[in-house]
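Session log. Operator J.P. requested a structure for one protein chain; no other inputs attached. Running the standard single-chain path with token output.
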Amino acid sequence: MWDNASRFIPGQCIAQARYGTAERAAALIDHPVYSHDTSRLWPGFAEFIETRPFFFLASADAAGRCQCNYRGGEPGFVQVEDDRHLYFPDYAGNGLLHTIGNFIENPQVGLLFIDFESGRRIKVNGRVRILDAPETLSAWRDRPGYAGAERIIRVQVEYAVLNCSRFLEKAVGHREAVMETGRERP
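Structure written below.
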């Protein structure tokens, strides 16, 4: 019997036992992709993240009700400060502020960066801090992709890994299609 309890959350262990994947999961977690310090961005992650024109963001309120959102901009709109911190701008949307409201109640966040052409994906989980002081916004406004941002979101990385791309269909020409349909930021 594999002792996965020390490497997985209880729900994962239950699911692995129920569906017969405990041995496979244990072998996978010993793979070099997972054997490094996953609380930091690997070398090369920063460049990949900073060249993405979009990412998907998952958040949840205090009761665990989830939201999944898209964030996009010119490559470079997500900026990596170091191996533990990254930033992205938050702009005026429809005014519902689902994501920001979730962050206020529960700072946990999941980010998924994808390159559909190569199939490469990076998953980053962490804790957010909302930066909205006028002096902070002023200091960031001249950075590419940050003009007009109402808030800057700082993510403290807690977990970062290459994400399985086994069933990710490659979409040749996806980047051009995204850029052609993009809109100017305010």
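Operator note: The beta strands are 54-60, 66-72, 79-82, 85-90, 108-114, 121-131, 151-162.
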